[in-house]
Amino acid sequence: MNHFIESPRANNASVLPPETLLIGFPICPFVARARIVAQEKGLALNVRYIDLANKPAWFLERSPTGTVPALDTGTHFIFESSVISEVINESAGPSLHPDAPLDRAVNRAWADYAANLLRSQYMMMICRSNDDIDRYRMALTDAMRKVEKVLTRKPFFNGEAFAIVDAAYAPLFVRCAFLKERFGLDVLPGCRAMRAWGTALLDRPSVQHVHGAEHRDALEAHMRQNGSVLLRHSLQT
Question: In this predicted structure, what is the pLDDT of residue 11?
């Protein structure tokens, strides 16, 4: 599939070899997280998208999980999105983590927790029954409210400084905006802090760059391929 070079927002020297390849899928939020971190670090990355329904042999030979993202430096093959974000963060420039060790640990824990929200949101988007929509929506809203309780700073998770934990949640809010604008589905009831955080993230240039104009069309096409009940409803109204 597509193979392109991610345009950096700055020009920082990197310890990653120039032939380093980020392997992904166009709408994967975990790939988006890695790309956002790279944008924030000012790094140019070669990006290659693969078809997850027909994964190439060269990828399966190197990946023990068969999941994206993966980072191939030529000599090192790195998998797991959180690890890839850390590698990119450490490769150049100031860290996108807080200085204090315990604060870093809290950031990493909540960044990992984002996967729970993203999975519930994804399943809600592709499910084929109204009962499943309600089930996944309740799970997502419940998880949102847990994050809401720890959001005590603005505009980002730690305050003024954008961090990896912000990159982890940005794709979630991109999809929240898509669901609200396309289907009138609001999954942030009563979550004022989450809503404000999401607004700040959607305004971030790195987030806008990674989620280009074609992103929503790609999301909708993926939903259609999976027989999403949301699209069936929208076609009937």
Answer: 45
Residue 145 CA to residue 134 CA, distance in Å, equals 16
**C-alpha torsion angle, residues 231, 233, 234, 237 (rounded to 10):** 160
pLDDT score, position 102: 98
C-alpha neighbours within 13 Å on the C-beta side of residue 62: 16
pLDDT recorded at residue 189: 85
Go through the domains of the chain in sequence order and give each one's CATH number. 3-91 (3.40.30.10), 101-236 (1.20.1050.10)
Single-letter amino acid code for the residue at 175: R
What contacts 81, CB < 8 A, 6 or more positions away? 30, 31, 33, 34, 69
Is residue 78 packed enough to be buried (19+ CB in 10 Å), middle (13-18) or exposed (0-12)?
middle
- Rounded to whole angstroms, the Cα distance separating 125 from 107 reads 27
Q: How far is CA 41 from the centre of its chain?
A: 16
**Distances in whole angstroms, Cα of residue 72 to Cα of each of 25, 162, 199, 233:** 15, 26, 33, 41
Q: Give the long-range contacts of residues 109-112, CB within 8 A, separation 24 or more.
A: 110/147, 110/150, 110/157, 110/165, 110/168, 111/82, 111/85, 111/164, 111/165, 111/168, 111/169, 112/82, 112/168
Amino acid at 18: P
Q: Which amino acid is at 5?
A: I
**What's the pLDDT at 219?**
97
Phi, psi of 156 (to 5 degrees): -110, -175
Low-confidence ranges of the chain (pLDDT < 70): 1-13, 234-237
